[in-house]
Amino acid sequence: MDITFLLIISVGILIMLIIVLGLIYLKMYIDERNKNGKPEEGKNGKPAGKSSAKSAGNYTQQSIFNFMEFDTIEDNMIVQKDGKRFLMVVECQGVNYDLMSEMEKTAVESGFQQFLNTLRHQVQLYVQTRTINLEESLQTYKKKLDEIKIELDNEEMKYNQMAYSSDYSQEEKDKQNMVLLRNRNLYEYGKDIIYYTEKMSLNRSVLRKQYYVIIPYYSSETGSDLLDKSEIQNIAFSELYTRAQSIIRTLTSCSILGKVLDSYELADLLYSSYNRDESETYGLEKALRAGYDELYSTSQDVIEKRMKALDGEVEKRAYELAENAVSEANAERLRKLAKKEKSIDELINDMAQVIVNENEQYLGPEMTAAAIKKVQSKRSTKEKGGEGNVKEKQKSQARMAG
User: Fold this and answer.
1) What 8-state DSSP symbol labels residue 41?
2) Which of 161, 230, 246, 276 has the most CB atoms in a 10 Å sphere around its CB?
3) Boundaries of domain holding 147
4) Interatomic CA distance for residues 344 and 206, integer angstroms
5) Quick check: is 104 in a domain?
6) Averaged pLDDT in 10-residue chunks for the chain of 402 residues
7) Could you give the CA distance from residue 64 to residue 155 in angstroms, rounded to a whole number?
């Protein structure tokens, strides 16, 4: 009975404590809510109205950044909360799970389980659905079609010349006609592709999904308060890149390829997130060319202009120097070639004497001497013949002059 009585008293005390703590927590919650929900007072002591909160003067650059929840994009990272949080994004290619065999599905599931088991830090899986923008493909098709049109016009002009000329056979004309028909069919086919592609681009239901793994890093993870922002950013980049590569390696086990987004691709991702409607027809590249990231335009810096001019002058003189050097080297080679051609007979005779001397042990001294004598006699004969030819040319020139 004593033990049962003690247990009842203990349970009652615990219940009372829980009730008291609950009341204290409820009071603190109400006070905090009233404090946060208290309207701001204006200059006249009255609460500020909605119109003043939404006036144009209150929309500053900092307020826009606070709304977008990121500060800047640097070193392939999204910087948030004044350098206290960094994000690196890995883009993943999806796999068609439904078309896989049972063995392949099991391998993918096992690989994904391994990916989850190897995680030692926070990640966020983000899926973005975009309308397929076929504008770049259309521009490529149109450029190629223009080239085909130019080639078609040239072939048609060539065929017309051949058709009204008697210099070509009927076989050549038929061959050119086949070339013309082939290019015309290719041109018509290209026009049809562009037409149907433009028609498809108007269909907003043509969508694609892109998959991302977002990896965060907090400045508090460095474990030191003595580091400046640049040091923290360098540490964050190293740690995030290591984590990203680890994720990419583990994802390959389930047949998923991944890559780290660079700064431009991160900007495109954020632009598509905050401009869902505009990004379908007006992509990031066009927005940048239109100057959406600039509040005003300035002329080019004078020093930069001079540096560009100097770079151009250096390149021009370098080309001239290289061209002169190549010309001089080529002229030197030509002079050596002419000199060698002029003394080719002498070189042949000298080489023949060397060959005879090298084989003296097989030929014998008498045969070697006789052979060398023959080589020298042929040299003298050629030299006399050459002198005679020169004298004959001089005499004929004198007779023509007389």
Assistant:
1) B
2) 246
3) 135-201
4) 78
5) no
6) 69 78 77 58 42 46 61 88 90 86 88 87 88 75 89 88 83 87 90 82 71 92 84 91 91 87 88 70 59 45 70 81 82 78 76 83 82 77 56 55 49
7) 59
